[in-house]
Amino acid sequence: MPLLCELVGPNGRVTAMDLAPENIARVDSLAAAKPTMPLTTKVGSLVDLPFPDNTFDGLWTANVVQYLTEPELDRAFAEFYRVLKPGGKLAVKEFDSTLFGLFPLDHAFHARFQAAREALYVTRGIFGVFNSQTIPGRIRAAGLTAVQGKSWLIERRAPLSPPSRAFWNGALKYWASDAFELVWADEDRMRLRALAADVDRVIENPDFCVREGFIVAVGTKPTTG
Ligand SMILES: C[S@@+](CC[C@H](N)C(=O)[O-])C[C@H]1O[C@@H](n2cnc3c(N)ncnc32)[C@H](O)[C@@H]1O
Q: Does the reported pTM lie above 0.85?
């Protein structure tokens, strides 16, 4: 938020929105320390944006569309179009699990884990993080033009910095907590549980490397038509 507030300049205004009131409360408490930030906060959903038509010059959403179902996605992209001013720009950022890598975990085990996680998203009926490369097409289908997508990787290798270490410790345990919901071989499930029980050793491996991929896709609301 501080970066976006800086980008819009002294005459601009940023509105931050999230579905969870506790997340907005957290933003409010952090923003209280910087009262000059041109920031307004709002609780609301991407599928029913609490703003009038043609309100914003730009709309940025990060790591949220993964939670939506197919009908919700259609509504969200229609809402993005509706609240943008003509000529306004949309940018959607998302994690792309098809680019994910975790080493030195053996590739075959990792591939089975990824396939089982993807199947779990399908069961839950959400867009997930395996379909992120379809986002540019969805932006185009919503009526925006000049659509572009770009992917990038972030790679973290041992030795991890303390914040990365804390993050990956939590993330690997979180993924392993899906183990019982995943439909896959018992042997793989046990292997994942063993890994979760010994995350520190995995992270301390001198060859530890985690590779995350992301996409950002942008489009512009036409000025006519
Ligand atoms: C992975 S976090 C991303 C948070 C933040 N955008 C970022 O990139 O750091 C996912 C966020 O999506 C929010 N969320 C989930 N469904 C939503 C919806 N339908 N509308 C708005 N926010 C939603 C959650 O409350 C959560 O804060």
A: yes
Around ligand 1, the residues with Cβ closer than 6 Å are 18-20, 23, 45-47, 62-64, 67
Whether 62 maps to a domain, the answer reads yes
Give distance in angstroms: CA of 100 to centre of ligand 1. 21
Looking up residue 205, the CATH number of its domain turns out to be: 3.40.50
Tokens read off for 43: 């609780």
Residue 109 falls inside a structural domain: yes
Is residue 197 classed exposed, middle or buried when 0-12, 13-18 and 19+ CB atoms within 10 A define those classes? exposed
Residue 3 lies in a domain: no
Quote the CA–CA distance of 6 and 10 in Å, as a whole number.
8
How does residue 225 score in pLDDT terms, banded at 50, 70 and 90?
A: low
Tokens of residue 88, six digits: 């306004």
